[in-house]
Amino acid sequence: MNTNVFRNLSYGVYAITCWDNGRPTGCIANSAMQITSSPATIAISINKNNYTHSCIENSESFGISILKETTDPSVIGTLGFSSGKDVNKFEGVSYEVKDYFPILTDCCGYITCKVTNKMDCGTHTVFLGEVTGGDISDGDPMTYSYYHKVIKGKSPKNAPTYIPDEEITDSYVCSVCGYIYDGEVPFDELPEDYRCPICNQPKKVFQKK
């Protein structure tokens, strides 16, 4: 089976947020969809290994920040490639509290939900949430295709769209988040203080493939 066919499905890029005993936390997801219009219901898919998963179960609620094409890629790196169990992800990510949820300021819209049901899907849980609030702001929503083809980002290992056997050759790849450097300047000529635009890791973590 050619798993790359899954990339032809339409995905967005979202920050799923919630509260962890009064502290904001969250992760990056690309599976969020409207299920019904009345009552408005949203479904999200979250890996059980994500710390956000247990926080959603405990709080029985979640927020969705819809990332836009101009969202700083480091936001995706921070929320998608580190664990809220180990670090305060929002220490360096700008957010506002809207409808009682931590919502990223660098987004083009948000939705807040209370969990009404859930479905066990093996490695993931699909949470159903009744919408409690939401609004839009300026910007074009980022699609997973845009993130993959333009930003050159990769899916975290816990994401539903993660493909472990991607063939990468003759490139320098960030060993933390999978970002592929393909700039005009040869990688060896980049300054030593160069950092990955996705996860902000130093040049030394890049590996030649």
Report on this structure:
There is one protein chain. Helices cover about 10% and strands about 35% of the residues. With about 210 residues, the chain is mainly beta. It folds into two domains: about 10-145, Pnp Oxidase, Chain A, CATH 2.30.110; about 165-209, Single Sheet (Rubrerythrin, domain 2). The strands form three sheets. It has a seven-stranded antiparallel β-sheet.
The CATH homologous superfamily of the largest domain is called Electron Transport, Fmn-binding Protein, Chain A
Quickly count the helices. 3
- Strand/helix succession: EEEEHEHEEEEHEEE
Q: How many beta-strand elements?
A: 12
Shape annotation: globular
At CATH level 2, the architecture of the largest domain is Roll
Radius of gyration in whole Å, from Cα? 17 Å
Report the sheet-strand fraction: 35-45%
Give, in spatial order, the strands making up the sheet with the most strands: 2-1-5-8-9-4-3
Question: What level of helicity do the residues show?
Answer: 10-25%
Biggest sheet descriptor: 7 strands, antiparallel
Structural class: mainly beta
Task: Give me the CATH fold name of the largest domain.
Answer: Pnp Oxidase, Chain A
CATH class of the largest domain: Mainly Beta
Distance between the termini: 24 Å
Low-confidence stretches: 165-169
Mean pLDDT: 84
